[in-house]
Design the sequence.
């Protein structure tokens, strides 16, 4: 075989080069920190765009339309934060994330804000280096089944095949529920929710499980939505909350208060239609919210018009809910737990004062 | 140079640990002892919600291993058949093999996996309307159900007895070969094998009786329970991996056979060997020297490609460990590190076995 003479790479020289480069880089390498702790606000202002982690498409929460524009209560929340911080509802980059990569994306600084119908749990809050800012949707896990199998309660699903999304709290809840009730089951966990729904629709599973809001949203995508029924019981509590990285309290405060501002606006009857006339309202709560009195925006590191912009461009919490999940949407989900506390729900914001 | 390399690695590890600690992210491998809290739908060893992440890792690894080993087996069989068919004088056979190779080699594997999966779950009926055969074989969109057995006390010794039988046969076969090489006599030793079999089986039955009972699949509630079952995910993945890799192996086999000089075949014919013997005893052994190195690469590819199964919910290593477990614990760095190490180990093991085999068939120049 000596007619074949390959040029031989000379290893010692490559090694020397490698060593020199490494030693040259070493001083520069010593203190590399990926996303600077603190200063998220400055970073966003400098880049003039907010990066927001959303789902890969869950109607009602975050899903792109045929023009590529994102809609949903989570997408609205991203916009609200962008408006408050940058004054522009379009200064935003939506980053679709699978359930699997969402926390890593937030930890590593790839996104500034995670608004991806994510359940607030103790483990996530304490062990993942992230901070939940407050539930923007109170949910519970439910099941959808075909009407013709004649099941009316989750209790009757003993021995059923169940399709779920991998790496979510739903997998854990199913295990807990079936185990504690001594019921048998087979679970198929798919990486993407479309795949799980498609498998359910094809008959691979007797039931598909996810948060109940998600079930209503996914039912619209089934071949024959009327042949399926969402069981009324929920087997868990799922407070869905946006989250930010731990270690930047200023940024967490801003995101949290954007959420509270939208809730307070609804409670005070301020919406995107009446905001200009409301500016003249004698009600001190409204005057503080809209920045006519006090300097609450400045103490957040923004300007005093921050909440006014949010309500004008995005609307209050109730408007966002109605448009994306409620009466004005295809999903027609009742406010239920997500009504304001004044109407018997759980949505409660601390006062702006 | 070595110092610089170690320094670089040290820096990477140190920087990662420091940054994770600063962000308050849990680190370390302690999570492996925690219980997982979720179940999966194919486990070759005992596993439930109370098992640890270590156990889950093992379950995922075994699921990857079984689909890889079976995939390699089927891909090799199909690949050799198609590769040889491609060289056939028969126009139709050769063209069919050509079409097979071009179709399966040129479609992305993920699409093929999804295709077989959707085909299985869409076409097969609901469990209540299963295709059944003799009331013991069932096929529906939840899987393929076969009759199987469960072991009673003493059943486990069967493996040892089978091992003993294998060792006995090996010994007899070796003796027969030595005899042939020494004297040139080929005798039928089948009766010896039967004798060994009868002794082993008789010994086993007299000691332990029949410690098995039939375990038949039966419809209970929503699904079939009992028996031996294969999920549609497993079948779809196995079929896709086998057919896809077989198309590459077919080309490798063809190249290997064509690399053997034509004179070898002509010489074999001149000696009066029939075509099949000429192929099996003269051409293929020489072709193997060319075939094995690229074949090893295909085996490695098949093993790694099995990770695409996350799309169809087959619970292999990447899907359950680098997927679900990663998301439940949030310890991405550790989990990805473990997963990569395992794939590296599997690949090196496959390479080692194939290299050992290659060393045996390689031409020894004197």
Sequence:
């Amino acid at each position: 075989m000596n007619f074949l003479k390959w040029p031989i790479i000379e290893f010692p020289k490559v090694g020397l080069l490698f060593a020199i480069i490494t030693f040259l880089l070493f001083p520069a390498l010593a203190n590399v920190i990926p996303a600077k702790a603190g200063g998220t606000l400055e970073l966003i202002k400098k880049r003039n765009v907010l990066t927001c982690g959303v789902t890969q498409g869950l109607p009602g929460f975050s899903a792109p339309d045929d023009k590529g524009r994102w809609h949903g209560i989570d997408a609205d929340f991203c916009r609200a934060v962008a408006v408050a911080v940058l004054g522009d509802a379009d200064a935003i980059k939506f980053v679709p994330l699978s359930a699997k990569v969402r926390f890593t994306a937030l930890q590593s600084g790839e996104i500034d804000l995670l608004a991806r119908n994510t359940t607030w749990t103790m483990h996530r809050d304490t062990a993942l280096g992230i901070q939940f800012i407050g539930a923007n949707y109170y949910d519970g896990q439910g099941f959808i089944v075909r009407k013709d199998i004649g099941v009316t309660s989750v209790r009757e699903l003993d021995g059923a095949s169940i399709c779920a999304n991998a790496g979510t709290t739903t997998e854990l809840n199913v295990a807990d529920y079936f185990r504690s009730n001594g019921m048998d089951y087979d679970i198929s966990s798919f990486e993407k929710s479309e795949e799980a729904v498609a498998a359910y629709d094809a008959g691979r599973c007797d039931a598909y499980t996810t948060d109940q809001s998600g079930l209503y949203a996914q039912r619209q995508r089934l071949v024959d939505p009327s042949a399926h029924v969402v069981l009324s019981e929920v087997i868990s509590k799922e407070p869905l909350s946006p989250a930010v990285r731990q270690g930047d309290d200023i940024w967490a405060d801003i995101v949290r208060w954007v959420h509270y501002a939208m809730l307070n606006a609804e409670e005070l009857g301020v919406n995107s239609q009446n905001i200009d006339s409301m500016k003249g309202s004698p009600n001190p709560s409204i005057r503080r919210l809209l920045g006519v009195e006090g300097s609450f925006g400045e103490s957040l590191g923004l300007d005093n018009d921050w909440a006014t912009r949010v309500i004008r461009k995005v609307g209050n919490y109730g408007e966002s809910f109605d448009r994306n999940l409620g009466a004005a949407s295809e999903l027609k989900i009742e406010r239920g737990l997500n009504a304001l506390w004044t109407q018997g729900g759980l949505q409660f914001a601390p006062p702006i004062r | 140079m070595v110092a610089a390399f170690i320094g670089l690695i040290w820096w990477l590890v140190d920087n990662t640990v420091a940054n994770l600690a600063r962000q308050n992210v849990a680190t370390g491998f302690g999570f492996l002892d925690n219980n997982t809290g979720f179940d999966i739908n194919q486990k070759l060893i005992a596993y439930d919600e109370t098992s640890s992440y270590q156990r889950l890792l093992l379950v995922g690894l075994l699921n990857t291993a079984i689909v890889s080993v079976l995939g390699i087996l089927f891909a090799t069989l199909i690949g050799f058949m198609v590769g040889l068919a491609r060289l056939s004088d028969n126009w139709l056979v050769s063209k069919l093999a050509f079409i097979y190779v071009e179709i399966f080699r040129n479609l992305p594997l993920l699409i093929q996996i999804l295709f077989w999966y959707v085909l299985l779950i869409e076409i097969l009926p609901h469990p209540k309307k299963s295709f059944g055969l003799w009331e013991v074989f069932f096929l529906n969109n939840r899987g393929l159900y076969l009759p199987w057995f469960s072991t009673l006390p003493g059943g486990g010794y069967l493996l040892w007895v089978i091992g003993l039988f294998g060792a006995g046969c090996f010994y007899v076969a070796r003796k027969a070969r030595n005899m042939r090489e020494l004297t040139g006599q080929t005798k039928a030793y089948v009766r010896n094998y039967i004798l060994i079999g009868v002794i082993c089986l008789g010994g086993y039955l007299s000691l332990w009786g029949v410690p098995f009972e039939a375990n038949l699949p039966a419809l209970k509630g929503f699904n079939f329970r009992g028996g031996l079952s294969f999920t549609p995910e497993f079948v779809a993945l196995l079929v896709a991996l086998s057919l896809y890799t077989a198309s590459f192996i077919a080309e490798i086999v063809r190249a290997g056979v064509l690399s053997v000089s034509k004179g070898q075949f002509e010489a074999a014919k001149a000696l009066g060997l029939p075509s099949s013997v000429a192929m099996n005893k003269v051409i293929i052994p020489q072709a193997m020297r060319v075939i094995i190195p690229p074949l090893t690469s295909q085996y490695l590819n098949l093993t790694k490609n099995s990770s695409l199964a996350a799309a169809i919910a087959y619970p292999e290593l990447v899907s359950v460990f680098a997927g679900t477990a990663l998301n439940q614990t949030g310890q991405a760095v550790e989990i990805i590190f473990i997963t990569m190490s395992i794939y590296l180990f599997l690949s090196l093991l496959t390479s080692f076995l194939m290299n050992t085999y290659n060393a045996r068939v390689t031409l020894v120049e004197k």
Notes: The two ends of chain B are 40 Å apart (CA to CA). Chain B has a mean pLDDT of 83. Residues 4 and 38 of chain B are 44 Å apart (CA to CA).
